[in-house]
Amino acid sequence: MDLQEILKQLGETFLDWKAMGEVIPKMFAVGLPNTLVLAVTSGIIGSFLGMLLALMGISRNPVARWIARVYTDVFRGLPAVLTILVIGLGFGPIIRHMTGSTSPYPMAIAALSLMSAAYIGEIFRSGIQSVDKGQLEATRALGFGYSASMRLVVVPQGIRRVLPALVNQFIALIKESSLVFVLGLLASEREVFQIGKDLASQSGNLSPYVAAGLFYLVMTIPLTHFVNWLDHRLRSGRPEKKEPDEAAAVVGKGAQA
Amino acid sequence: MSEFASGTLTAKDIHLSFGSNHVLRGIDLHVEKGTTASVIGPSGSGKSTLLRVMNRLIEPERGDILLDGRSVLKDNPDELRRRIGMVFQQFNLFPHKTVAENVSLALRKLRGMPKDKAREEALAQLDLVGLKHKADVRPANLSGGQQQRVAIARALAMKPEVMFFDEATSALDPELVKGVLALMTDLAKGGMTMVVVTHEMGFSRNVSDSVTFMDAGVVVETGSPEQLFTEPRTDRLKGFLSDVL
């Protein structure tokens, strides 16, 4: 096999335009919406649960702290695929029995939410704990109770500081949503990865995987850059509004005249 | 004539320990309505802790706190703190809110004022401290002295009966101290009841009506400024004054 043949074979394997052409419309119509539903829903639920865990983690009640600690250790310590399988296969039949729905989505979203909550909880907790103690003291000195002080002053500042880490967690969720394939998906339930996988096995060609990869990158790379931008902005503050330089303007006009 | 609805504050036999550390060992302090009491003493003598106990940011273990002769230990501590304004060494402005929002937050959320009314009130308070023109900037864009004046406006907006100052000028660059002290002097002259924990001996001597010297959790001497500064009776106060003056 000479170099030309190798390149040709690789090209056919990864960049088969015909196979890609078939897969891309399906990605837009089915895969992308499904991936976004999984990632966004779990991201929102995970953020709420995460905030609850963070507040429990810093609570004065030792039982609440202990529950948050154990929860976080368990869900951060398990492989994502195992959690999705166990929750999906374990609770799926109960849901089916109760609602008649065979969709694996509710359980997949539950598993992704529970996992991301453990990470997001730690992110929020570190953010809240990094807020200067004087903020809580000053708020309480004005006459606010503990929960109002946390809600109005401490938590908003804490969240702001950890926004970059939070966006990283959303990126992880987009990628982990691909693991839902282990629960078995109907044609209409397939997300970006499963569509790539199906067409790859039908055609014996890896180009659909490449297409799936591109779809993930289109979702994650802008978020990565958004994180960097956000991080920079939070560090250095809002850019100063540039006042028009009056002197320069006059010179400019004069030069043109 | 007082510009403020000031009250009389009394602390009786206040005790507090942090673990085995007996921080306050039976403190008595009486601040008559409309007067200014300064509390001086070395670092770690319990001055700042005393302020926090008197507005119940920290609950005393023993003793009583009275406002206008009535004990406030059974009251809701949040409501007590609405009656006592507090200004901190590190300003503690809310960095995520504008200057006007810093001042109006408690008016809106605790007094239930509508947004525009609360802003109007906040602007009036900022005008009193000379910072109305900074209403819409964030605290980070202000000098330390300006931040502290905003913090004073924030406390005054709640129309407190007593004001606490916890080393309010200690974190300021020397050239910014004067403006804050001038504002505190105006408040004192206006009839606000104030408890001022301070290292500014000039303020203590010239503005306050009474001076209390604390050391190691006890009140060592208390009296008029002349008395304490010109005729200290104890060696501890003499030693302290010779260190700081």
Major sheet size, sense and barrel closure of chain B: 6 strands, mixed
Which structural class do the helices and strands of chain B define?
A: alpha/beta
Strand runs of chain A, count: 0
Mean pLDDT of chain A equals 90
Question: What letter string, H or E per element, gives the SSE order of chain A?
Answer: HHHHHHHHHH
Radius of gyration based on Cα positions of chain B = 18 Å
Question: Would you spell out the secondary-structure blueprint of this structure?
Answer:
The complex is a heterodimer of chains A (257) and B (245).
Chain A: H1 3-14, H2 17-57, H3 62-77, H4 80-99, H5 105-129, H6 133-142, H7 146-176, H8 192-203, H9 207-236, H10 246-256
Helix pairs in contact in A: 2-3, 2-5, 2-7, 2-8, 2-9, 3-5, 4-5, 5-7, 6-7, 7-9, 8-9
Chain B: E1 9-18, E2 21-31, E3 36-40, H1 47-54, E4 62-67, E5 70-71, H2 77-83, E6 84-87, H3 99-109, H4 115-128, H5 144-157, E7 162-166, H6 174-189, E8 193-197, H7 201-206, E9 210-215, E10 218-223, H8 225-230, H9 235-244
Parallel strand pairs in B: 3-8, 3-9, 6-7, 7-8
Antiparallel strand pairs in B: 1-2, 1-4, 4-5, 9-10
Helix pairs in contact in B: 3-4, 3-5, 4-5, 5-6
What does this structure look like?
The complex is a heterodimer of chains A (257) and B (245). Chain A is mainly alpha-helical and 257 residues long. Chain A has helices spanning 3-14, 17-57, 62-77, 80-99, 105-129, 133-142, 146-176, 192-203, 207-236, 246-256. Chain A is built from 10 helices and no strands. Chain B is α/β, with parallel strands linked by helices and 245 residues long. In chain B, strands 6-7-8-3-9-10 form a 6-stranded mixed beta sheet, with helices on both faces. A 4-stranded antiparallel beta sheet of chain B has the order 2-1-4-5, with helices on one face. In chain B, helix 4 crosses helix 5 (144-157). The two termini of chain B are 34 Å apart. Classes of the chains: A mainly alpha (257), B alpha/beta (245). The interface between A and B is medium-sized, with 19 and 25 residues.
